[in-house]
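LOG
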Amino acid sequence: MPNPSRRNRAGLCTLAFLFFGLEPSQAEVVQGWTMDADPALEAGLESLDAAIRDDDYLRINAVVIIRDGKLAWERYYNGSDRDTTHNPRSVGKTFVMPVLGLAIDQGHIGSLDQTLGDFYSLEDYDNYSTKKAGVTLRQLVSMTSGFEGFDFVPESPGNEENMYPTPDWVRWTLNLPMAESRQPGQEWRYFTAGIVVVGDILNRQLPGGLEAYADKHLFKPLGIRNYQWQHTPQGVANTAGGIQLTPLGFAKFGELHLRDGRWNGKQVLPAGWAAQGMQATTATTIDGESYGWLWWNKNYRVGDSDWNTAYCSGNGGNKIFVFPEQSLVIVVTASAYGQRFMHSQVDDMMTRHILPAIDSLDD
């Protein structure tokens, strides 16, 4: 059941502004966010709030909107609240990118163009080829590695579901053959196992390992303490997905990328890294969508306006949307795992409720 006190908190803050004449600078600060509840936005999103509570949209746990760097709207459902951590599945893949950027900036990784052959003795694995040895980190994070693996095709030898039962995910991945019909860097194929390998490389190269390094250089600077990694069978932080944060923690991750690696005035990531990673570079197999470095790209049409977004996406309908032109971050956490409607219902929420409500504020 929804938590009414949480659901109405932003509305109560709005009443405080109106009744006491408080300026936004005097607003409540929540986990680093200044609350800035706009009565017009509150009114515009009443229909969304009702639709989720009435189960017109199923298994939604939270919706958070950050506008112009302030917490503009937040709602929690189905027993969740501000402190509830959530498994966003493949949204967690994208957390590789800031760690990788920091690792390169600090000299622990040479560049995105380092190859698998630089990190592994691939002659010790099945299906050795110079093509496999030449696969780069850039190709892995852009899903263009050329491995015989495609998660969208159940029959694919490298489908992620074949990896999870094995005792060593990295060895399983590096044993895979390369695709005969594709060269690395040519075509996009969503390949979770390749990101597990990137995580393993980071764990090997970073002082203290991936998990401790990310805590020191990413999570602590963002003020994120309430989070949990999942782990591979080897005990390495699982970069296939599933890192659990609160919705406001996910929002901080989105805001960090919106501000090109800055948080609270400090440059957390190398300048330019976040913006470059979100940039669309590769066409996908999904019509109208492209891909950057573990970031999806698409366009929403609202009235006569185009809303271009880079976003992370995970099973269940989990999303972190970044809209650079509108200075906007939107987080949706959901638990509709494996359901056919999981992504389409979020698109419907965006085009029918959220973006029109925000668009109307500028009318």
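LOG (cont.) second protein
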Amino acid sequence: MNLNYIVKLGVAAVTAMISLNSFSQDLIARQAPIDRKLKTVDSLALQKQIRAEQSEYPAFSLYPNWNTEYVHAYGKEAVVPDSYTIDLTGFHMPTPSTKITSPFGPRWRRMHNGLDLKVNIGDTIVAAFDGKVRIVKYERRGYGKYIVIRHDNGLETVYGHLSKQLVKVNQLVKAGEVIGLGGNTGRSTGSHLHFETRFLGIAINPALMFDFPKQDIVADTYTFRKNQGSTRTGSHDAEVADGSVKYYKVKKGDSLSRISKRTGVSISKLCKLNGITTRTILRPNQVLRCS
């Protein structure tokens, strides 16, 4: 094999390698836009799936289940974040009534977990936010005819003592859409709307978020904080929704011993129900659960 042939063979091999490398780079260059398009398609499909899931199960990343039987359906299943910002934009007042007849807080040794708005029998009641109807039921010794709606922002709203329910379980509703009529059903002493706002079963005072006299939101967002003494109710406390859980408001000079005698509940049970010890210092106006 002469030298000239060997040189030609080497040059041909180098040329082939350069051509192959060039072809590979060209193939990669042509493939890149395709990969980007595929990623875009995947992203759009994923976004579409997420939107579908959000529509089917509002706040699905927060709630452990979709229960159509009980208002307080979460208990220890719910993982409550230390803080969570709730978007209040898009809110619609459930009624144009501005008169609050009973505020949120302890009432008659029980915790009133919402507020009462004066309405007449037959007045229109609407959804506060976009969402999905979770419960449409009747409770003779509690809410009467009531509706529970879960919303994308993480809240659930409860509408009690209705005379008529105009939506069905699993129905999607828009903010401002008619869901029922005001009434006086259940445990009620006069026609009114009992309105609750809950986050993972924890009752939040609606007045902290909504200014009913002004018919507006207090701010665009509300930040829930786990350790700010939010009132826990429901399965966190009991498997009932008729207000049968009893509370005691601590007075100046009260001790666990005195409260035990007044309520007929043992000191050990009081401690267990409220997560305290016999050494815990009680504060005036502190609310203790007694059943």
